[in-house]
């Protein structure tokens, strides 16, 4: 009962102890309390009850009862870090027990061996236990044994064997009422999905398991550890670190299992390293190593040592000692049959290369490279990274490029299994090293044109195909509606000066629920096999248009100028200097949005000149007189490009990639020319341009006041030729897909836009911060504009800074006048800027807006 209804079992056991039971019955009751405390409570209390249960079993003179308690006590001692005592108790249980009971004890000893990382011993005990349990028709314990065997197979990388055992166990669980064990089976299936490379299914199954455990009222720290693994594989390392640290806090608070604390510390160390926090990673990994060593868990200790060495290297502590340490870890992991062994060999080779130890580097990298042809995607990428690093060391650019191509192809295949835009964007971080190696090799051996090809290979790849459309999930739709309602109520309360902590908590809960459901989506669109062709780009540019793609190599901006059938390279400044200058400019534009800051105008203009020197360098003098397309890297998305002197009076547009610009250029507008004008609440001017635009476009659909509600707005935007939205915009750096435009019934968020069959061909967002993005992954952007571009939008006008609402109105009216005369978005925006008054507020407003795409 303790694994079917844990809290009821605990209450029943306490009732038994209050009724003057016999030693036999008291032994059972103390064991139940001990198991409950062992798995979900205080280990000290657990050990006290289990020792009493053992003593009472001896008084009852029942050998099988004593063997059963010794098994539960042995597992508890192992979890408490008292490994030698725990194994002795389990050994004694095997000796004392017989037949069916002995098989159950063997299962628990196998479980303890798995906890300790003794996988072969675990498999041997399960092999002996399963036939006896089956013969006794013990469905529950047979299912437990099969689940454990599957879990051990997964630890050894035998995914197919694990799947077979999980399937057999699940069929048995369906015939029982063991709710906790059923939840554990769902959790185990989630682990199997993760190990086979299906991240969305893993997240869905682990979330389902969490719901089941929550109904039982039992915290499950193993689930936290597995969720951390999957979150890290999905590129969500900061979230994994937060989850691991939170679980450690809960575990410490209840005096829980020492073994689980060590595993959570290891998960936190891995997450911190992936999140770029090397010092936190070192601290967590060092604690994990010490705990695992004290618990005599060599398998686990070796994995923790691997993370500790990786973190020390990330902190700049490469040394000959670390080469030897990494090599020793690789050998030990290989002896265990652990899938992480190639990762350790790659690390040893990487450190050796940095020290100039070529023979050592070659030996370790060749071992790591063996994993490139089989196994899960990330293991194969490890192999291709090792192959590329050694090819670079021997000076073979051709082999570097081939290894990088093969490795990135593996990651491409992996990304197509991910449905959520966020996961696809974050997954690209795993290919950043390969993309960087290829870029350096291509520049050395192939010149600017080849560098352009590799710059495009791993830039804004999420925009290369439409995202998976969210399913018609009633719970997701209900969550989105509830989120809008709560967010609207919270906003109204803030405006009235009322406290909103309860509403904010509920809003955060709904956000987590919506995000969780979207992350469960499996990719349904395989890659289209598209490969960027620089000849096609140059043909489409023709003689007049110039495309400037900014690549970053070793921290310096490389300017690739594409025009008139050629690709030329110029060198800009340091990326870090450009980022710093861009932040200063953004601060200046924020101040200029308010009257009285005119003195800042010359300062901002001077910063624009410095930005041009850093970002364009000598290429600024080679732009000619025609239109320009700027393709910046993700980390420069905050640059207000209209402020650069060479672009200020020019027709120019911005695109996340050259490939994205080509797709936009070739996008065909929808038939009918339908136009939609939307006016949201709360604008200082009331969205004053919308009524005037409605008068000009008599046939346009106008949505304002109560009509400007999210469901109606989405229905009208779908497939429109031109949409204009005047509304308050908010950018969420912490969760970019919850960036929003305020409508009458609450926020219209990026997740809503992703439900469109086709977003408007042209869309104008006369709102603050609509062109802000979060830079994630290798070179990806998440935000409102990037959500629209893959959905059929060919041109967007949006704003990268807060602006003065009144100054926006004349800019928008002139912009629409140009579009009505047949101009492109970039042409109309250039002319609209030129028509503004020369005061600081209007100038800053014009600079804050950019045209994206090619319409």
From TrEMBL:
Domain annotation CHAT: ranges:
606-848
One Pfam match, given by its short name, reads CHAT
Q: Which InterPro entries match?
A: CHAT_dom, TPR-like_helical_dom_sf, TPR_rpt
This protein is called what? CHAT domain-containing tetratricopeptide repeat protein
Its source organism is Streptomyces doebereineriae
């Amino acid at each position: 009962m303790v694994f079917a209804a844990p809290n009821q079992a605990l209450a029943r056991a306490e009732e038994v102890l209050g009724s003057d039971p016999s030693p036999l019955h008291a032994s059972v009751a103390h064991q139940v309390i001990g198991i409950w405390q062992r798995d979900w409570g205080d280990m000290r209390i657990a050990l006290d009850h289990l020792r009493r249960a053992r003593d009472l079993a001896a008084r009852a003179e029942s050998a099988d009862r004593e063997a059963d308690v010794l098994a539960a006590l042995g597992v508890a001692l192992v979890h408490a870090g008292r490994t030698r005592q725990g194994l002795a108790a389990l050994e004694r249980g095997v000796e004392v027990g017989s037949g069916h009971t002995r098989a159950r004890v063997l299962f628990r000893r196998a479980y303890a061996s798995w906890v300790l990382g003794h996988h072969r011993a675990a498999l041997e005990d399960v092999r002996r236990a399963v036939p006896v349990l089956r013969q006794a028709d013990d469905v529950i314990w047979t299912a437990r044994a099969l689940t454990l065997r599957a879990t051990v197979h997964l630890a050894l990388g035998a995914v197919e064997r694990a799947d077979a055992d999980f399937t057999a166990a699940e069929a048995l669980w369906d015939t029982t009422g063991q709710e906790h064990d059923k939840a554990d089976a769902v959790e185990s299936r989630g682990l199997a999905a993760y190990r086979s490379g299906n991240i969305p299914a893993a997240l869905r199954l682990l979330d389902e398991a969490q719901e089941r455990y929550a109904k039982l009222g039992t915290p499950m720290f193993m689930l936290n550890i597995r969720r951390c693994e999957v979150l890290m594989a999905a590129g969500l390392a900061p979230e994994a670190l937060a989850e691991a640290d939170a679980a450690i806090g809960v575990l410490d608070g209840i005096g829980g299992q020492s073994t689980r604390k060590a595993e959570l510390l290891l998960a936190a160390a891995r997450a911190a390293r992936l999140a770029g926090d090397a010092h936190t990673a070192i601290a967590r990994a060092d604690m994990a190593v010490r705990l695992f060593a004290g618990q005599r868990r060599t398998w686990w200790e070796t994995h923790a040592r691997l993370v500790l060495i990786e973190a020390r290297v990330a902190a700049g502590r490469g040394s000959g000692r670390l080469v030897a340490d990494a090599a020793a870890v690789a050998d030990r992991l290989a002896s265990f049959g652990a899938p992480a062994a190639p990762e350790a060999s790659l690390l040893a080779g990487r450190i050796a290369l940095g020290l100039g130890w070529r023979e050592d580097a070659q030996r370790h990298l060749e071992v790591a490279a063996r994993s490139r042809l089989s196994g899960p995607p990330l293991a194969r990428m490890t192999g291709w990274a090792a192959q590329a690093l050694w090819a670079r060391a021997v000076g073979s650019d051709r082999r570097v490029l081939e290894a990088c191509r093969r490795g990135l192809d593996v990651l491409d295949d992996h990304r197509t299994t991910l449905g959520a835009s966020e996961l696809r964007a974050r997954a690209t971080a795993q290919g950043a090293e390969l993309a960087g190696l290829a870029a350096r090799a291509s520049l050395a051996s192939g010149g600017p044109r080849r560098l352009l090809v590799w710059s495009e290979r791993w830039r804004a790849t999420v925009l290369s195909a439409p995202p998976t459309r969210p399913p018609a999930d009633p719970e997701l739709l209900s969550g989105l509606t509830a989120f809008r309602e709560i967010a609207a109520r919270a906003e109204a309360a803030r405006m009235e000066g009322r406290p909103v902590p309860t509403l904010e908590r509920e809003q955060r809960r709904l956000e987590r629920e919506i995000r969780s459901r979207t992350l469960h989506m499996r990719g349904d669109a395989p890659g289209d096999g598209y490969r960027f062709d620089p000849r096609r780009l140059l043909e489409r540019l023709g003689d007049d248009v110039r495309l400037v793609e900014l690549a970053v190599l070793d921290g310096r901006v490389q300017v690739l100028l594409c025009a008139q059938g050629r690709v030329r390279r110029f060198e800009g400044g340091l990326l870090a200097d450009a980022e710093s200058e861009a932040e200063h400019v953004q601060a200046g534009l924020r101040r200029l949005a308010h009257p009285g800051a005119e003195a800042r105008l010359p300062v901002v203009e001077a910063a624009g000149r410095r930005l041009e020197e850093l970002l364009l360098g000598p290429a600024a003098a080679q732009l000619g007189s025609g239109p320009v397309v700027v393709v910046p890297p993700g980390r420069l998305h905050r640059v207000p490009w209209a402020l650069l002197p060479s672009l200020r009076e020019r027709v120019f547009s911005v695109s996340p990639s050259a490939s994205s610009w080509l797709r936009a250029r070739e996008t065909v507008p929808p038939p009918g020319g339908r136009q939609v004008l939307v006016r949201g609440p709360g604008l200082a001017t009331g969205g004053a341009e919308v009524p005037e635009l409605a008068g000009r476009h008599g046939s346009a659909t106008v949505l304002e006041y109560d009509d400007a509600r999210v469901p109606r707005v989405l229905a009208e935007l779908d497939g429109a030729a031109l949409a204009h939205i005047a509304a308050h915009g908010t950018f969420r750096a912490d969760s970019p897909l919850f960036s929003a435009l305020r409508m009458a019934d609450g926020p219209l968020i990026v997740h809503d836009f992703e439900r469109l069959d086709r977003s408007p061909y042209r869309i104008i967002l006369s709102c603050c911060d609509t062109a802000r993005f979060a830079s994630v992954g290798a070179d990806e952007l998440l935000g409102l504009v990037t959500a629209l571009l893959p959905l059929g939008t060919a041109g967007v006008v949006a704003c990268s800074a807060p602006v003065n609402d009144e100054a926006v109105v004349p800019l928008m009216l002139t912009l629409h006048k140009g579009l009505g005369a047949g101009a492109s978005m970039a042409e109309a925006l250039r002319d609209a800027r030129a028509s503004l008054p020369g005061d600081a507020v209007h100038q800053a407003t014009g600079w804050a807006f950019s045209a994206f795409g090619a319409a």
